[in-house]
């Protein structure tokens, strides 16, 4: 029943936008992009944080007048709540071995709960982030290039050596590495990450059965916003020039981001270890996988 209701809803929205495109093409384009870029879930309330995040030190940053949230679990060089020692910890944090966690679409930093249990015993400092319009971060629009700007602000301060991304968080990492050429990062871990932005866009177009007028206007909008042609907006192409070591894992039963995307990364990343799992789906939560990640780090 829910599938039928969802089908009817998406086609109704698409029909409305298609009709609107003949009356007011600009409005149709903007509404279509708003639906495409605005997450429906993943937000958090500060007074109702999951226990996973309550144990962290919260630090807020800002990009284009929007605040975004990070969570820090200090490693052996910064594992203290004492205010005086905390200041010393902040000064030494950039010298610590930092692991940076980047979540995916309609999620937030709490999605790393299970992986954190494996990372904390390593003694490394761990930083997780709420992406644009997710968690405690402000804004209404989410996309990989904007997320990449959040990443660079945090990375400039804490200089992580390892960065881990799930789903579109992995694509944001690739966009970041391609744009900013960060040589401080030594290891990259991608879990169920998409590569081709055109596939994501086309899936959205097909879901709503949008006409070519809207499809073309959206692709033009992407170029205006991100300064890159949609056919070149492909993370596996960026990866051809990456020097970092990579651990890429993708599940054969992932229905959200198909296995071909993981294989593209693996085939183009020069220094990559590739693992295909089975039965984990898109979430990629698995104790054995997480242990392999720790071993890789």
What does this protein structure show overall?
Mean pLDDT is 92; it is low at 78-92. The protein is globular. It has 297 residues and is α/β, with parallel strands linked by helices. Strand 7, helix 11 and strand 8 (272-277) form a beta-alpha-beta unit. The relative contact order is 0.12. Helix 2 (25-37) packs across helix 9 (212-226). The chain folds into 2 domains: 1-37 and 197-233, no CATH class; 43-195 and 235-296, Rossmann fold (3-Layer(aba) Sandwich). An 8-stranded mixed beta sheet has the order 1-2-4-3-5-6-7-8, covered by helices on one side. The chain contains 12 helices and 8 strands.
Q: So, the CATH homologous superfamily of the largest domain?
A: Alpha/Beta hydrolase fold, catalytic domain
**Could you spell the SSE succession in H and E letters?**
HHHEEHEHEHEHEHHHEHEH
Could you tell me the CATH topology label of the largest domain.
Rossmann fold
Terminal-residue CA separation? 45 Å
Shape: globular
- Mean pLDDT reading: 92
CATH architecture of the largest domain: 3-Layer(aba) Sandwich
Beta percentage is 15-25%
Q: What class, by secondary structure content? A: alpha/beta
CA gyration radius, whole angstroms: 20 Å
Largest sheet: 8 strands, mixed
Number of strands: 8
Low-confidence stretches: 78-92
Helix content: 40-55%
């Amino acid at each position: 029943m829910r599938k039928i209701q969802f089908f009817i809803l998406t086609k109704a929205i698409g029909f409305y936008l298609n009709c609107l495109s003949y009356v007011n093409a600009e409005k149709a384009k903007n509404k279509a992009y708003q639906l495409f870029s605005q997450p429906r879930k993943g937000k958090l309330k500060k007074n109702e944080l999951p226990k996973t995040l309550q144990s962290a030190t919260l630090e807020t940053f800002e990009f284009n007048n929007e605040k975004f949230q990070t969570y820090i679990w200090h490693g052996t060089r910064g594992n203290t709540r004492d205010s005086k020692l905390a200041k010393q910890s902040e000064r030494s944090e950039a010298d610590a071995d930092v692991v940076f966690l980047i979540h995916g679409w309609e999620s937030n930093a709490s999605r790393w709960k299970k992986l954190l249990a494996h990372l904390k015993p390593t003694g490394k400092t761990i930083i997780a982030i709420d992406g644009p319009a997710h968690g405690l971060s402000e804004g209404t629009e989410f996309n990989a290039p904007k997320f990449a700007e959040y990443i660079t602000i945090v990375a400039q301060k804490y200089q992580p050596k390892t960065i881990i991304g799930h789903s579109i968080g992995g694509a944001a990492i690739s966009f970041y590495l391609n744009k900013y050429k960060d040589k401080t990062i030594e290891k990259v871990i991608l879990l169920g990450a998409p590569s081709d932005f055109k596939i994501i866009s086309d899936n959205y177009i097909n879901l709503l059965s949008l006409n070519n007028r809207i499809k073309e206007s959206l692709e033009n909008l992407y170029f205006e916003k991100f300064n890159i042609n949609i056919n070149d907006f492909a993370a596996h192409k960026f990866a051809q020039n990456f020097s970092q070591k990579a651990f890429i894992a993708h599940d054969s039963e992932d229905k959200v981001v198909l296995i071909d995307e993981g294989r593209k990364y693996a085939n183009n990343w020069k220094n990559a270890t590739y693992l295909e799992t089975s039965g984990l789906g898109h979430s990629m939560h698995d104790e054995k996988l997480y242990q392999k990640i720790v071993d890789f780090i």
